[in-house]
Give the backbone structure.
Amino acid sequence: QVQLVESGGDLVQTGGSLRLSCAASGIIFRINAMGWYRQVPGKQRELVATIANGGSTNYADSVKGRFTISRDGAKNTVNLQMNSLKPEDTAVYYCNVHITNFYANSVEYWGQGTQVTVSS
């Protein structure tokens, strides 16, 4: 079993910055990709940013140039630096991890979510 612990969500004013972190622990053979998604009430969960094992990144168009995803492989953590925040960035942010376990199975895990609120 893999546990994901998120931190960093908060209330911030428009134009401010936040840094989200997610630490994965448990029995992990290999982490294949890590990322962040977000969801607001009444809408589908949407991709914010992902980072693959090799370091390649992918961002939603709405956050390009403002958000930066990074990963610490030794610590199995993924971070999301969010700058120039806008009210429309307000959402619950979820950490997402794709791993390969010791049975060679690919498994996906989600964090519990952390609230980001941007006031206008």
Observations:
- The longest strand covers residues 30-39.
- The CA atoms of residues 90 and 117 lie 5 Å apart.
- The chain has a mean pLDDT of 95.
- DSSP finds no helices and eleven strands in the chain.
